[in-house]
Amino acid sequence: MTGISIEATQKGAFTVLSVHGPINSYTFTELQEKVMKHVGKADLAIDLSGVSSMTSAGIGVMLAAIEDAEAETKRIYIIAPSEVARLAIESTGFADRFPTLSSLKELPA
Amino acid sequence: MGLTLFTYVSAVLMLLGIFRVKRRGRGSDLRTFRFAGLLSVSYALCLATGYGLAISDSATALTLLRLAAFFAATSYLAFFRLALSYPYPRKLALVDLALLALGALALWRFVFTDDYLVQVRRVAMEYLRFEGPRYQLLSGIGAAAALLAALVFILRGFRTVSHIYRQQLFVMAAGMLGSTLIGYLVAIYLPTHGLNTIYPIAGTSGLVAVWSASYSFSATRIFHVPTLAKTMGAWIALFLLFVLPLAFLSGVVLQFRLSIPVIVVLSLSLGFLLFGRWAERFSRGRFGSARDEEAREQLESDIAHIDLSVGRDDVLSKLAAILEAEFKFSWFVMLSETDAGDLARVYPGADEAIVAPAEAAVIQILASLPRPVVLKTDVIADPSFSGSKAPLLEFFETLGAEALVVAREGRRVVGVFAFGPKRSGADYDILDYESFSAVYGKLFVVAYYIRHVARESLLATVEKEVGLADQIVKSVQDSIDPINHPGVDVAYVCRSTRQLGGDLYDAVRISEHRWFFVVGDVSGKGLNASMSMVILKSMIRTLLREEQDFIKLVARTNAFIKEQLPRGTFFAGVFGFIALDKGSVYFINCGIPVIYFRSPGLDTVIEVQGEGKMLGFVRNLEPYLKTRKLALPPGSSLVISTDGIIEAESVRGERYGKEKMVQIVTENRGASAQEIVDAVIKSASSFADGKLEDDITILAINYHGHKEKKA
């Protein structure tokens, strides 16, 4: 089974988490732990361009991260979601709840 | 219009304060309050209009200002009457008669004589009032009525045993004193010190009295004093640091309003933006609860992490210790429903003494309470409890409790958590109520565990916590009204890839031919998703009994998820009603990915779910919801599935997808509902090499038609 890899880097004020691989019920815990480590403490960008599949477990992590960031008035962006990630986000009917940028270059200062 | 605008606005605000109080159970006290409030509104309107006309029509202005003074004095008399009876309405015929006579006397002296006011004029920005010979006497009588009302409120507050009524009476007293003080400052003190331009805003003084009384009528919980002090301090700071400087800036800018209007507008806009921004930053975290959200989440987390495998007594001991640290009560009792439907004590001690037998009226009352958390002060002061006040208070007295949390499943009371007085002697306050409400979901799970699992003999044989929780989940999942009807063949599978999951299927029989059903997936995996599912299923059943409107039912479920379940929880599924006598399904798609429909007249399977909005993303979902209707001809089939099937992946990372599922459903034309379900799961499982990674719920309905039942 393919695993997930999450790489954390810094870009300006943002901590960038670049996710590669599938986000499903086996892998979401790792993503959740990494996201929770950073969210609310710093501005966060989650790069989903390398996501190969994404189930509702992944949507749950994203939603919790967005709500946590909002509660702490920190900025959070989803970056360049892959086709499958974009479809998963759109399936919620609330794609506008997921602040999305098409590339890391668009991150505000 | 100038300053009179403030008075007109205050009149509107007073009307809002008067009519926001619900009528139910208030009796004559509410009528007295509304009468007093409407007199205050009349005072404000006459005063503002009177001063407005002072420049053009001094005769009408004079009459209106005399009427205003009469309304002010009589509103204080009405508040005095309220002070004599609140909170226990009673008839005081002689007092009423005396007050009526005083009112008539006031009307005569204030309005039809020159005793109070002889003339009023406006010269430039100044108001010139020519007061009558008994102006001071009449004004003094009005103020005395207000002070007397405040005094009676205070004295009765001290004599009242109930703390909530004491708080209400003191708030009303504060309102009367505040109103009198403002009236004195604006109508007497400041004008005699050279500021007679502000006469018109004297009419706003009634606002304080009206809103204090309005708040008291509605407040059924004790203030949390530190939070109240903190919030008031923040308001004062906000006023001094931001509002006053902004007002000063506006005043300075307006001095130049005629010369360069564009600059005035720009300067004011900039000022409002800047001060607004600073004030918003300043306000952040300074208002509201003194206990931070983190502590509440910690409490939720502590309860959620109680090890359920240690046995009933230890679970309840740990729960008691966690709750005691938060609420600092003197003792805690838990009651659980027995198999006979009684409520028996299960903690402390293991005697299981029956506290309320199944037939006791209080059990029905607890089952139909408007909310699961009830403070004793609510029962005493909230008129919505008026019909059940006596048995509820008796129940509180029997337990010696001050607060109850009632765990319910539909109309059944599964358990009751009763909390004794606080060690400090303080009452349970608004924040305690909010904390109880916040952890209700977790307490429900404990109550459910105690009721259904803890006493089972299998407890000793199940070793892992996950196994225990699985028992809860399974017992909840199995607790459905199966759609057994000759006109239909229904089959479903609801299972988790691990032992625990958030998938949900429930059916509730509404009538002989009609069922409500819900199919979906609560986000997350494992224990947390399972617990959310257990709570959600229970809540949907409760709402189903309360809510007649389909869309509102879903909207309320959404609000529950957003407000009560852990942050980030959402639900993707479908809510439906199936009417087998009509051959119709009504459904609301809330993000279910698959609803396939096959008509006997068509060879193909079509998707009918349409677009949907998942639950848990926005606070108010109602505007997004649409009910769809699907006619089911005899011989048609409906297959509903959560995303577990179509998201299944092969070892090569390929997705099972909708097409393969359509193919299987199409191939199984004429098969039974169970055969369709089995074929889909077998196909997906085989595609994923036996490793389905997500929870699966699939429901198949074959409709045979209503006529077949008759045959």
Description:
The complex is a heterodimer of chains A (109) and B (711). Chain A contains three helices and five strands; from the N terminus they run ββαβαβαβ. The model of chain A has no long low-confidence stretch (mean pLDDT 88). In chain A, β4, α3 and β5 form a beta-alpha-beta unit. In chain A, α1 runs parallel beside α2. Helices cover 32% and strands 32% of the residues of chain A. Chain A has a single domain, classed as STAS domain (Transcription Regulator spoIIAA, 2-Layer Sandwich). Chain A has a five-stranded mixed sheet. Chain A has 109 residues and is α/β, with parallel strands linked by helices. Chain B has four domains: 216 residues, Rhopdopsin 7-helix transmembrane proteins; 62 residues; 160 residues, GAF domain (Beta-Lactamase), CATH 3.30.450; 234 residues, 4-Layer Sandwich (Phosphatase 2c, domain 1), CATH 3.60.40.10. In chain B, a hairpin with a 2-residue loop joins β7 and β8. Classes of the chains: A alpha/beta (109), B alpha+beta (711). At the A-B interface, α2 of A face loops of B.
